[in-house]
């Protein structure tokens, strides 16, 4: 059993780093807050006798040595970055539970056959730098390092510059090493487990995602002197597109999701008809065919904006395939749940996770715990200490079982 | 006759201050660029022997003394601030033409009966600080100085702080003094004069304006885990509102205008259903009754958003009444046009101007020149040197006639 109080106290400490007045956290990838959280994680790890390596994407690998260094290690972990005005558990819970797991093994003087590696993936959220899961994507061969280092935030700062700025660009290339099994523990970020009063989600699959950047170019004009029919208004065109994107989501109920999370207006002045809107669009669905249909509908909607005298350019920046997790990995978690006397159900994740990418190169699966009302990507994200404890225990026994093989 | 080359060269110099790569200008009110433009205007004025006073709103009053200091002066002027990514003539043309007028009187050793005051009004555009015409509004008694000093930009910097930062908070209270007549020369910012190949617009009236700030509050949610029907999406609600605002404009053709120029999304992250959108709405029309109807329709549209589970708060921040200019003042410009052999037509301004406020306390009117394709509030704003010259000559003779009375 893990030490539930110690786990909760590390979560409470991490919640201070980037803490917001409303009780959430803004700890954007490679920001100063991220640096502080990383340093704390590293210091805790070194104090406990683990090693800590950083790769060229800033991914941190904390290793507790097993008996047999020639065997492939077992991996666990998640991410310490957050959304802007995000919650205190998304990502950081999986990292702190992984640390707690390693500390528990120390406390009980348990030697494992295999090394156990706790990973903190850089820029999982995709909030500061799009797309999400960028660094696990490089590590697993989805993206080149050059591509990833050149991704820029809103201010034009690249991932490479941001890594240097916080001192987290490691020497070792971000490239996968052999992994025996990988487990990520995460909050569900949806309402199902809490609604059904189930302790643990055994995640068997994750939805696919397609992300787009849309640039709508109209023509700036004076709001007082430009008659309505003469306008080429990028903002009203954007509004038309936004309602169509929403409709595409509704056309793919119950599983489809269509979201515009970001929109930036130029010149963004009250008495100027906007010349430009740059926005995101993202679609999610468990089936690739549905994503194809959604993407086609987006292109059609964008082309239709020509009737408003504007030009809409659609760029796909992220194509994240639906995946299925490894059955043998899931079986270890199922066995752990049974041994611990918890309730569990199989689930599909609507959120993307680094471990989805890891599953392309190694046996992997995920463990979910409930979160209140399914609220996530929100300062109001909450979990109960007992949920936290149960998830970490399932993680402990899943990882331990694999590490003794 | 004014010196057309000198006028053009001052415009060219001013276009460097805040000049943008695309050939426009970003010289926001009370920014460092504004300070530099003000300093240049002041230095040129002092060199030419004029006095320069600054009031508590940063309004600059440059005075060329007449024979009789007890008579009310004649006023002319406009503003040196610009929109973000704005043009090289909006406002600055009227100020530089006023300076040229005073220099021309010097060159010709013309003594006037009355003083002539060239004014540079602070924050005409309303881009950095809403509403527009803020400082002429204080000067003419529309707004209190406390209210105006407390208006804040997007970063929370107030007008009072910004005045201090650039050293343009004068001692003298911003309060009107007696004015015999006031003329503002400005680009039309619409296409009519160019389309009809007319030199001069004699502005007899200006449309009313109503400006609003709308805050739409939904609930931040994870874009992957939150089913479409469970969302309280502030952005899709905003999109619905934006199309309704556009429709309100179309319902009041040909004169009605409805514009959303500004929208800011929170948290503005690609994979978060937005919790909040704050946007502007503005309506314009020559008739107050039509503005009332537009405002009522806005409230209805905002209330309708409750069906989406969001709350829309509508705040009116600016109520700018339609005005008619002074017939006697217009007559002097008409006489000038005739004497100079130019063509002219009476016009209504869709844009607001400081001189609309001045017309509440003194006889006032405006003179327009064409601008290419009516493009304004855009970096592509252009005028021809000969248009510039003709407008300045009409201004010269309008002001001179009044100043000799
Ligand atoms: N788990 C999570 O919130 N990941 C961020 C990427 C996504 O939006 O799916
Ligand atoms: N003339 C001008 O562009 N004024 C700014 C205020 C308005 O938008 O009417």
UniProtKB/TrEMBL annotation, chains A, B:
Zn(2+) 2 binds at residues 90, 125, 377. Residues 207-308 form the Peptidase M20 dimerisation domain. Keywords: Hydrolase, Metal-binding, Zinc. Its cofactor is Zn(2+). CDD domains: M20_bAS. Zn(2+) 1 binds at residues 79, 90, 186. It comes from the Bacteria. This is Zn-dependent hydrolase. Binds 2 Zn(2+) ions per subunit. NCBIfam families: hydantase, PRK09290.1-3, PRK09290.1-5, PRK12891.1.
């Amino acid at each position: 059993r893990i030490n539930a109080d110690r786990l909760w106290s590390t979560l409470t400490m991490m919640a201070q780093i980037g803490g917001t007045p409303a009780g959430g956290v803004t700890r954007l990838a490679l920001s100063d807050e991220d640096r502080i959280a990383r340093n704390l994680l590293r210091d805790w790890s070194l104090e406990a006798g683990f090693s800590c390596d950083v790769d060229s994407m800033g991914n941190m690998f904390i290793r507790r040595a097993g008996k047999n260094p020639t065997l492939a290690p077992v991996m666990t972990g998640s991410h310490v970055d957050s959304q802007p005005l995000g919650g205190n558990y998304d990502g950081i819970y999986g990292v702190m539970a992984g640390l707690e797991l390693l500390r528990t093994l120390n406390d009980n003087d348990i030697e494992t056959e295999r090394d156990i590696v706790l990973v903190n993936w850089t820029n999982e959220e995709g909030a500061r730098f799009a797309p999400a899961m960028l660094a696990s994507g490089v590590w697993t061969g989805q993206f080149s390092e050059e591509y990833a280092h050149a991704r820029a935030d809103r201010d034009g700062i690249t991932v490479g510059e941001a890594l240097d700025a916080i001192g987290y660009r490691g020497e070792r290339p971000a490239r996968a090493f052999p992994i025996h099994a990988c487990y990520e523990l995460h909050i569900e970020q949806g309402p199902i487990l809490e609604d059904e009063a189930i302790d643990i989600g055994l995640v068997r699959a994750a939805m696919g995602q397609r992300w787009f950047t849309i640039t709508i170019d109209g023509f700036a004009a004076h709001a007082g002197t430009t008659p309505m029919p003469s306008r080429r208004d990028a903002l009203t065109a954007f509004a038309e597109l936004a309602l169509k994107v929403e409709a595409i989501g509704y056309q793919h109920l119950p599983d489809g999701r269509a979201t515009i999370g970001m929109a930036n207006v130029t010149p963004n002045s009250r008495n100027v008809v906007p010349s430009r809107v740059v926005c995101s669009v993202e679609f999610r669905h468990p089936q690739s065919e549905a994503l194809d249909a959604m993407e086609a509908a987006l292109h059609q909607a964008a082309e239709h904006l020509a009737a408003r005298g504007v030009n809409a350019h659609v760029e796909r920046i992220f194509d994240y395939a639906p995946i299925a997790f490894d059955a043998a990995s899931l079986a270890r978690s199922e066995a752990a749940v049974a041994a611990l006397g918890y309730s569990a159900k199989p689930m599909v994740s609507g959120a993307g996770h680094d471990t989805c990418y890891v599953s392309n190169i190694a046996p992997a699966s995920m463990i979910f715990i409930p979160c209140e009302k399914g609220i996530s990507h929100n300062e109001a994200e909450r979990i109960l200490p007992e949920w936290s404890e149960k998830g970490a225990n399932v993680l402990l026994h899943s990882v331990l079982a694999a590490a003794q093989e």
